[in-house]
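Run Protein PhnA through structure prediction, thanks.
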Amino acid sequence: MSNLPNCPKCQSQYTYEDGSLIVCPECSYEWNIDSQEGADDFEIVKDANGNTLEDGDNISIIKDLKVKGSSSILKQGTKVKGIRLVEGDHNIDCKIDGFGAMKLKSEFVKKL
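Sure, done. The structure for Protein PhnA is below.
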């Protein structure tokens, strides 16, 4: 059994090495073997009310959002289940029932 550290994001014990990175299969977080601070490598994502969001949370959209490249609109109050946090400007990756895969900004959602 290897002596790898637990995931700094979700505390999973099932981490494994992939080249020069350590990978967590449960939350998909990756960090450098040489980097022992680990937990400082990911950004804390907060919703419009300041609540901390995590992978798997359920959220609600707080305002009507126009969808780029489409005439569709995501209505205020639309509920989204099981989000996944990603890096970037649109930091929430999700599937919306009746709409499909979508990336959202955390400033336009609230945690349920």
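The longest strand covers residues 92-96.
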